[in-house]
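We give this protein:

***
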Amino acid sequence: MNSSATKSGDHVVIVGGGHLAREHHEYFVRKLPQIYPVLLCKRVMGGYRLGIDAMQLGFASMRRVPLVDSCRALMQKLARMSGDTVFLVVRQGDYCVCLHREEGHFPVKVFTTDVGGRRLLGIGAGGLVLMTALSDAEIGRTMERHATEYAQSGFTPTRMAQAVKRTRHAGYAEITDTITQGVSGVGRTFWASPTTLAAISFGAITTRLPAPRRKEMAQLLAEQLPR
């Protein structure tokens, strides 16, 4: 089996299949420092990790992934039942990425993120509920890596810890005026596959999602999402 890494425009193309032979693996690791600015990868202890911009290339065609296909009908149903916007998000490193969005019939739409858009874990209902799956140590390291960005969104380590604790206790995430003033949301996780944890959330103007209705929407997600 032959494997190679070549530059092609702004991308790095890796040719080959299966497991890299040891000599190919070692060669690639030696050469990676010369090409990693093109790959947009980040050096970490013991090797390299793709950077967020490089991984974004792989999410460009997410509308056609099986997860979106399998969730589309459910999301349309939730949008009809609630009248609100429904989002499907998955974790991507320290971020969450929106894979799909369905609009409800309520005339005031909430589009806090577009398909393919990403934001840090913990920000937004879907991102917050996904973050609760991490250990406290992992959450702390994520906060450290992106301290400035979290601070800009009004999240201190203490505030995030409180939000995570509250979400774990409730079993769902609820946010009010976190991303955008006047916008609230509710989200729950579900296992899309044995190894893929995803989240579906509702987004609506805050006046439409008072505390009692947020609880109702959380119960609706619990009843409708795969167990």
